[in-house]
Structures are given as structure tokens and as C-alpha cells.
Amino acid sequence: MRFSIYIFICLFIVSCNKGSEKEEIVSKPVAKAGNEVLSLNDYKENYIAVESIKDSAILAKKSIENWAIESLFYQEGMSKLNEDEIDVDKQVEDYKRSLVNYIYQTKLIEANLDTNITRREIEQYYSDHEDNFILKENIVKVHYFKIPIKASGLEKIKRLLRSYVYQPKDVEPLKTLASQNAENFFMNDSTWLYLDDIKKEMPKLRDQPDFNLTQGRVIEFSDDLYYYYLRIKEVKVKNGLSPLNFERQNIKNFIINKKKTELINQYKFQLLEKAKSEKKFEVY
Q: 2-17 and 53-80 are packed helices; what angle lies between their axes, rounded to 10 degrees?
């Protein structure tokens, strides 16, 4: 009997949606949970049509039960929470205030903040805050190659790897061949990398004590799938001072955030001073 009610609801809604004369506001209740009633009109607003009437009835049953669950949970919450906890109007107003302030603050920053940070500013910040730039992990500059054993250019890459340190002219051919054959490679002399990230790429490297990974060392080995090559260009150990170019982007972000705070605080102070001068601010 109850399942037929769900079928009736589906048929009624479908007929309404097809433009019959039943397009009037429907207040007939279809379910009740606690002291809340779900009208047919409210149900229609979330109705999802499917081709099968049987499927529609199952969906209607599930939808109404979900409504009942949420309704009963809400009613219990209202009965168990104290007045301060359910003062929704105040919470909504507080959220609206915060959101409006955030949106306006963002627009002020976009319109007025100069995000061009000079090299001198970055160097000065680094010099003034060295204690904030202590390494928590070992970092390295490396040349690194991971090449499939079956790569056609592997033997030529190996020959170039053994000579490019002494023959700078071999660097560009090596990069070209690596881009064509390597699964991964890295040859940026100015970029620092976390040593642990390199270890993730080279499984056998995990067995090496970090103190063995010194400047100038070359490590190469193969497994069933890949040939690996690593040349360590430079090492900075944890607990030491982090190099400037490793922290450059972080410093730039610090400076920009500081400028954002200063800009907004200054603007708010000016608003207060203006309100005072125009007699729009009073303390009773």
C-alpha cells in the first residue's frame, strides 16, 4: 500500500510537469517527521524524473526518507542545544560580515598592492631573518637521469655522461637525448632539491648514509627496468643555514603578505580617522 503511494506521487508530479491543469500550488502533505510536514509542492522542487515509474517510486521513497532523517536530526538538535548554540541569525550575520570584509579586502589588495619585489628586498629580508631559514632536511644540487634499460639511446647517453663534465659541448646533446629517452632527468645547476625526493626516484640510494652523498660524487647503477645516474653538484645539510635561492620564493611570499597586512591596516586606520573628523564616530 505504501509503495503505491510513492507511485501515485510520481504519476501526479509527471502529469503536473507535462502541463496539465494541476499546475496549482500543491499543499497536500506527503510525509510527516516529528512536527514537520513535507508538502507535495516542496517535494516537487527536488524531484528527479526517471523513465521507469518503478524506479521513480523507489527514488521517491528514498528521497522522502532522507528528508525525514534530516528533519528529525534537526529537530533533535534544536531541542538539545542551548540558545547561544542555535543563535543562527547572529552566526549568519557574523559570517556575512567576515565574507564581505574579505571580499572588499581582496579587491583593495588587487587594486593597490605592488607585488613586484626587488632582489634587494629579498636579500635584505634574508639577511635580517636568518634564524627563520634553518634547514630541516638535507638538500642537494644534482644532475640526475632515470632511463629505461630498453631505451634505444641508452648507450650513447652513457658515453656522454662520462664525458660531459669535461666537455661542456656535450651538455646540449645530452639534454636532447635525455628528453627523447629518459623517463625522468634533471640538469638545472641553480635549483636545490630535497635529498629525500631524489631517494624516492632511486631506490638503492635509500641504503646510502646521507654523509656518503658528498659534493662531486657520482652514483650509477641499474635494475631490471632502469639505468640510474646521479652526480652530486652541491650539498647543504639539515640544521645549517638554508641557501638564499632555495628560499627566494618563500621570502617573496613573506614580503607580499606583510605588505598586504600593512596596506589593509593602514586603510582601516584612515577610515577611522576620517570618521572621527566627520563626526561619524562617537564613543558613549
A: 100
pLDDT in tens, 194-250: 998 988 888 788 777 776 778 888 988 888 899 999 999 999 999 999 999 999 999
Measured CA distances, 162 to 79, 148, 168, 283 (Å): 77, 18, 12, 79
- Phi/psi at 238 (5° precision): -60, 155
Nearest to 182 by CA among 208, 223, 144, 217: 144
Expressed in angstroms, the distance from the first to the final Cα of the chain is: 68
User: 10 Å Cβ neighbour count for 75?
Assistant: 14
Q: Are residues 148 and 169 in the same domain?
A: yes
Q: Is residue 243 in a domain?
A: no
Among all chains, which residue has been given the C-alpha cell 638503492? 204
Return the pLDDT at 265.
94
Dihedral of the CA atoms 96, 101, 102, 103 (nearest 10)? 90
Asked if 103 and 11 sit in the same domain, the reply is no
Distances in Å between the alpha carbon of 1 and those of 6, 7, 105?
9, 10, 59
Say whether both 230 and 146 belong to one domain.
yes
| Structural domain that includes position 143 | 135-236
Separation of alpha carbons 227 and 183, rounded Å: 10
Q: Which residues are CB-neighbours of 42 under 8 A, at least 6 positions away?
A: none
What does the pLDDT look like over 70-113, one tens digit per residue? 889 988 988 888 888 888 888 899 899 999 999 999 999 999 99
